[in-house]
Amino acid sequence: MPRSVNAVASRNRRRKLLKAVKGQFGRRKNVWTVAKNAWDKGQQFAYRDRKTKKGNFRALWIARINAGVRQYGMSYSQFMGALNKAGININRKALADLALNNPDAFKAIVEKVK
After folding, report:
1. How far apart are the C-alpha atoms of 65 and 58, rounded to whole Å?
2. Which of 25, 51, 100, 106 is surrounded by the most beta carbons within 10 Å?
3. For the chain, how big is the Rg over CA atoms in Å?
4. What's the CATH number where 61 sits?
């Protein structure tokens, strides 16, 4: 009896992966083994950097808040300590947005915690 291989499925699987790496440089885009390794590594980076992105945004928000409160003679850490002591629960994302886009509202918050 002849050997049964599902050539249709394996060809489709390879075609799908080669389509995913289309646009990469050199043999990464057209040689199956190289493309498979490149795709695997890319997926590892994507998984890792989805986590890293959250920390990058937090650092950006902190930098914006710090720049905003420096105008009023405070540092970021002093401001956050005073904010917690005053019992104002507002997250860093919202504070950074206020500091950037609505300076009057941000100033009111700073004055309240001073």
Report:
1. 11
2. 106
3. 26
4. 1.10.1900.20
